Amino acid sequence: ETGVTQSPTHLIKTRGQQVTLRCSSQSGHNTVSWYQQALGQGPQFIFQYYREEENGRGNFPPRFSGLQFPNYSSELNVNALELDDSALYLCASSNMNTEAFFGQGTRLTVV
Amino acid sequence: AQSVTQPDIHITVSEGASLELRCNYSYGATPYLFWYVQSPGQGLQLLLKYFSGDTLVQGIKGFEAEFKRSQSSFNLRKPSVHWSDAAEYFCAVVPSGRGGGNKLTFGTGTQLKVEL
A61 preceded by cis ω (within 30°)? Predict the structure, then answer.
């Protein structure tokens, strides 16, 4: 059984650019959720994908978007990057009635 | 909207001492409750969870937590702390019936330091 893997582990982007983060869900899981964790804060829910459809969204602007693929892997896309987007982005996989398992995260720095 | 409060931002304990980390939630109904641990620069590892049933739940690494409905609390405890327990601890909730690990609301975390 493989765990949740995220890529890349670290990323530096310039303000205004676009970024794509990737997540491979744990084997057997059909739900992927994305969280943003700013320095010194708890993770904040961005959105969730269940069977390739968005299934709930937190308080994030539309420039945060995502995809889920038939193999349940997922991407998080952020357009028009702002300095405040600098954070650890966490992916979590689960089934609808089980606990979430988190990946190691992608550290995004916007300069 | 539900919220989670972890009143202690930092806690320092001596190795071998007991530990209790506090968590209070605000929600209309009893949610599902979780404790996660995060080492520096790492993802979150699930320590334990409460869905229903016995209000004292056992987790990994010798941790336990007690759900107290009357106090809307879910405090994390460990009888004897090890130096490797130094990390940040997050309490999280999700509305019951919506699914165990989905759309979690996290507290702001408690940073645990262990003195040798």
Answer: no
| Residue-wise pLDDT tens digits, A13-72 | 999 999 999 999 998 899 999 999 999 899 999 999 988 999 889 999 999 999 999 999
Substitution target from A99, A101, A106, A109 for chain B, most B beta carbons within 10 A: A99
Mark yes or no for CB contact A41/B108 under 8 Å.
yes
Contact between chains at A42 and B90 (C-beta distance less than 8 A): yes
DSSP notation for A51-67: TTEEEEE-S--TTEEEE
- For Cα atoms B52, B61, A34, give the angle at the middle one, nearest 5 degrees: 65
Cα gap B13→A63, rounded to integer Å = 43
Q: Which chain A residue has the Cα nearest residue B89? A: A42
In whole angstroms, what is the distance from residue B49 CA to residue B101 CA? Answer: 10
Q: Coil, helix or strand for B92?
A: strand
From the candidates B104, B108, B111, which should be mutated to test the interface with A, based on the most A CB atoms within 10 A? B104
What are the angstrom distances between the C-alpha of B106 and each of A28, A94, B17, B94, B96? 25, 17, 26, 9, 15
- B33 with B49: CB under 8 angstroms? yes
Q: CA A63, CA A77: separation in Å to the nearest integer?
A: 8
Residue among B44, B92, B102 minimizing CB distance to A48? B102
Who contacts B15 (Cβ-Cβ below 8 Å, separation ≥6)?
Answer: B81, B82, B83, B114, B115, B116
